[in-house]
Amino acid sequence: MENKRFIRAVLDKNAIIQEFQCTLNSDCYDSKDVVGKNWFDIFIGPSDHEKVMNVFKSLFEKDEKKWETYANDIKNKNGAHILIDFKNSIEIRDGQKYIVSVGTEHYLS
Predict the structure, then answer these.
(1) Would you say 99 and 86 are in contact if contact means Cβ atoms under 8 Å apart?
(2) What pTM did the predictor assign?
(3) pLDDT band at 1 (very low <50, low <70, confident <90, very high)
(4) Which conformational region is residue 108 in: left (phi greater than 0), alpha (psi within -120 to 50 degrees), or beta?
(5) Residue 18 falls within a domain, yes or no?
(6) Three-class SS of residue 23?
(7) What gap in Å lies between CA 27 and CA 36, rounded to an integer?
């Protein structure tokens, strides 16, 4: 059986990482290094910050279905950029809303 390579993050309304798992490659962050920190500060480069933040806000605040899938670059722990195809969903836990994003590396066909 082939191991799936993915990244999964659960973010609160302030984009604070609540849960994290990554099996993309050896340059993935460990969950202990990112849980409790802001997703945008760690994973999103300055040139993409505003665009991805607008998607986050639209998904979180308006639950817009058009952002259920979204591709954007993230930085790994060595600073390299990887294009990821994300599937996003809203989850309610104990009355609090969270975004659950699961992504795989984007491959051009």
Answers:
(1) no
(2) 0.90
(3) very low
(4) beta
(5) yes
(6) coil
(7) 20
> What is the DSSP code (8-state) at residue 2?
P
Over the stretch 48-103, which tens digit does the pLDDT of each residue have? Answer: 999 999 999 988 888 677 789 999 999 999 999 999 999 999 999 999 999 999 99
User: Looking at residue 38, which CATH number applies to its domain?
Assistant: 3.30.450.20
Q: In what order do the strands lie in the sheet with 81-93?
A: 17-22, 7-11, 96-105, 81-93, 69-75
CA 99 from centroid of its chain's CA atoms: 9
Residue 16 lies in a domain: yes
Residue 66 DSSP symbol: G
d(CA 84, CA 65): 18
- Per the listing, tokens 């993915």 go with 6
**Number of folded domains that form the chain:** 1
Domain span including residue 76: 7-105
